[in-house]
Specification:
Helices cover about 10% and strands about 35% of the residues. By secondary structure, the protein is mainly beta. The strands form four sheets. Strands 1, 14, 15, 16, 17, 18, 19 and 20 form an eight-stranded antiparallel sheet that branches. A seven-stranded antiparallel sheet has the order 2-3-4-11-6-9-13, with no helix packed on it. The N and C termini lie far apart (about 50 Å).
C-alpha cells in the first residue's frame, strides 16, 4: 500500500451560463472561446472537488474522493467531521454575469434534511473591476415575508444589501445568508464540502428555483461581511472560523511552515501567482504554479516552501481548536 505524500491535483473546469471566456488571469494556456477547448463559458474551477485527480506519485489517476476513502483520517486529520469525505471544497469563480440569488443551509438544517453538513463559505477577492459587487444579506428592516413577495413579483434585487469589492479583501458568508455575486471579479471560494444550494431568484432566467427550501434555510440576520486580515508581511491570516482557516503566504525566500496548535488537519495550498516547491523530509518535492493546488496530508505538519522565483498562495485548513465566528463589517 503506498504511503501518503503531498498530492498535486488537476483542476476541474465547470461550464456555467454566468461564467467567463477569459481565464487568462490564472490559466493563460486555457481558452473558453467558442470552438475552443470549452463550448460554454467557465464559471467555476474546482481545485479540491471529489472528482479532482491526483497527477503525481503512486496515487496518480485516483480521485480525491478515492484517496480520502482509502486513507481516511490519515489524509484529512482529526478535525474533519466525516472521516470518509474531504472536508473543504475550494474553487476559483469567474463571474461574467450575475449569479442567482441563493442561500445554503447551516449544519443543523442540512442534517435535518439528511445531509452530512451545511455550507458556510468565504471569498478571497483575487481581482475586481471598479463596479464589482456582491449581495450579502438583506437591507435593514426587510423581512422574510417581503422576500417571498419580491421573488413572486421578480423584484428582489433592491431588497439585498450590495457591497463593493476590492482586490485583496476577504468576504465571510455564513450559512443562512441570502447572497449573490455580481459580474466583474475573480474570487477564490473556500467552503464546507457541500454542493447544497437553494436558488431563490434568478432574474427571470428559466432555471429551477427552490423557494420553499431556501426561505426555510434563510436567516434574516447573519454575520456575513468583510473580514480584516491579521498580520502582515510574508504570512497573514485572512479569516478564522469554526469551519475553516485561510492564511496567505507571500514567499520570496525559503519558508519553514510550522504546525498550528491543536488537532491535525489536512492543508490545501492554492497558488495565486508565481511558482513554488513543497519540500518535506523523506518525500519527493512537489512543484505547483499559478492556478494549481497541493493537498498536504494531516500527518505532514512541518514542511518548507521554496519559491521559483516568487510564490503567492493561500493555505486552507480546518481549525485544530475552538475558533469563534469572525468579526465582520459591511
Amino acid at each position: 500500500m503506498p504511503e501518503l505524500y503531498p498530492l498535486l491535483l488537476l483542476p476541474e473546469f465547470k461550464e456555467r451560463v454566468w461564467g467567463s471566456r477569459d481565464l487568462s488571469l490564472l490559466y493563460p494556456h486555457k481558452t473558453a472561446r467558442k470552438g475552443g477547448e470549452f463550448e460554454q463559458p467557465i464559471g467555476e474551477v474546482w481545485l479540491t472537488g471529489d472528482e479532482c485527480r491526483v497527477s503525481n506519485g503512486d496515487l496518480a489517476g485516483q480521485t480525491l474522493a478515492e484517496v480520502t476513502q482509502r486513507f481516511g483520517r490519515g489524509l484529512i486529520g482529526e478535525t474533519a467531521p466525516d472521516p470518509s469525505r474531504f472536508p473543504l471544497l475550494i474553487k476559483f469563480l469567474f463571474p461574467k454575469e450575475k449569479l442567482s440569488v441563493q442561500v445554503h443551509p447551516d449544519d443543523a438544517a442540512a442534517r435535518a434534511a439528511g445531509l452530512s453538513n451545511g455550507k458556510t463559505e468565504c471569498w478571497y477577492v483575487l481581482a475586481a473591476e471598479p463596479s464589482a459587487q456582491v449581495a450579502l444579506g438583506l437591507k435593514p428592516g426587510v423581512s422574510k415575508s417581503e422576500v417571498e413577495r419580491a421573488i413572486a413579483e421578480t423584484r428582489l434585487e433592491p431588497l439585498l444589501d450590495w457591497i463593493g469589492l476590492k482586490p485583496g479583501e476577504m468576504i465571510y458568508v455564513d450559512a443562512g445568508t441570502i447572497h449573490a455575486i455580481g459580474p466583474g471579479s475573480v474570487l477564490v471560494e473556500t467552503q464546507q464540502n457541500s454542493d447544497t444550494t437553494y436558488r431563490l431568484y434568478d432574474y427571470g432566467r428559466p432555471r429551477e428555483l427552490h423557494v420553499r427550501q431556501g426561505l426555510a434555510a434563510m436567516k434574516e440576520k447573519t454575520r456575513a461581511g468583510k473580514v480584516s486580515r491579521q498580520g502582515s508581511g510574508s504570512v497573514c491570516n485572512l479569516i478564522s472560523t469554526p469551519d475553516f482557516i485561510v492564511d496567505k503566504f507571500v514567499v520570496k525566500e525559503l519558508m519553514d511552515v510550522k504546525p498550528r496548535a491543536g488537532k491535525s488537519s489536512a492543508q490545501v495550498l492554492v497558488a495565486l501567482d508565481g511558482c513554488g516547491i513543497v519540500e518535506a523530509d523523506g518525500m519527493r518535492p512537489v512543484t505547483f504554479a499559478k492556478g494549481e493546488c497541493v493537498v498536504l496530508p494531516a500527518a505532514l505538519r512541518e514542511y518548507r516552501l521554496r519559491p521559483q522565483w516568487a510564490l503567492e498562495c493561500l493555505r486552507a485548513m480546518l481549525p485544530g481548536e475552538t475558533v469563534p465566528e469572525p468579526e465582520t463589517t459591511r
